[in-house]
Design brief:
Largest sheet: 3 strands, antiparallel
CATH class of the largest domain: Mainly Alpha
Number of strands: 8
Distance between the termini: 83 Å
Strand order of the largest sheet: 1-2-3
Structural class: alpha+beta
CATH topology of the largest domain: Arc Repressor Mutant, subunit A
């Protein structure tokens, strides 16, 4: 079984040692690309090939990943990107939905630098939990990471993954189309929902004789926007102005324009 780790120009190989030796794990470092050729036309076209060693390892690999550029660019941390690649490699396996790792191996796969986040509590809070949160919100598959205990000590981690439901996929698509600003707060459920207030219920048709065409809310808005005008006087002047004219389609909007002109004339 082979696990390509192309970011580090090395591959982790697991195979039978032979002669009853059981499974053997080792790291093979290879040149990723053979010779490359760049077009002299300057159109940016580059031709490349993989060396025979890499082709053989890929041919024997049991894990493949389809990485989506839109998703990769949406992550805010390298830990989330690394976890996304891990889950994508394993998401299409038919008979396997979880895998166990040692702490050191999982730290290496997430790209945690040596000497950083050495305590498991910090590793979980600053790397694992934020990564799982983003992958579940933006990735093709959902996942969880659980500690493996020996007594009270954490000795390893179990990564589980599964295909998202249709509802979850729709939520993922919506999040990918949303702004990155405030994403973590939204995903953690701490975002405050701001309800948009409905527009004021202004009376848009011509009022009855001697009656005002403004609701209390509209009246307050006029007083706020035109503090130097007497709203009642302006409305009576507006109605007199329209005596021999065709009534406006939107009474309040027309009155607002009339009041704005009156306020401008007072300057």
């Amino acid at each position: 079984m082979c696990y390509p780790d192309l970011n580090h120009a090395q591959l982790r190989i697991e195979r039978e040692a032979g002669e009853g030796g059981g499974p053997e794990t080792f790291t093979r470092r290879v040149q990723l690309l053979a010779g490359t050729e760049e077009s002299a036309r300057g159109d940016g076209v580059v031709f490349y090939s993989f060396p025979a060693a890499v082709r053989g390892i890929i041919r024997e690999s049991s894990q493949y990943a389809r990485l989506q550029k839109q998703v990769m660019f949406a992550f805010s941390s390298k830990y989330a990107l690394a976890l996304y690649e891990m889950v994508q490699k394993r998401g299409n396996l038919k008979y396997k939905t979880s895998e166990e790792f040692s702490l050191d191996r999982f730290r290496a796969l997430l790209g945690v630098e040596r000497g950083k986040l050495t305590r498991f509590l910090h590793f979980r809070q600053r790397a694992i939990e934020p990564a799982v949160l983003e992958v579940n919100a933006l990735g093709e598959y959902a996942c969880k990471v659980e500690p493996i205990y020996a007594g009270r000590k954490v000795t390893g981690l179990r990564l589980s993954w599964w295909t998202k439901s249709l509802e979850e996929k729709m939520a993922t698509l919506h999040e990918l189309r949303s702004s990155r600003i405030g994403r973590r707060t939204r995903l953690q459920g701490r975002a405050e929902t701001v309800l948009a207030l409905p527009p004021p219920t202004y009376l848009s048709l011509w009022p009855s004789d001697g009656q005002s065409g403004l609701t209390e809310r509209a009246y307050a808005a006029f007083r706020r926007d035109f503090p130097g005008l007497d709203v009642d006087v302006v409305e009576r002047e507006f109605q007199a102005y329209l005596t021999d004219r065709r009534p406006p389609t939107d009474y309040v909007k027309a009155l607002y324009g009339f009041a704005r002109k009156k306020a401008k004339d007072m300057l």
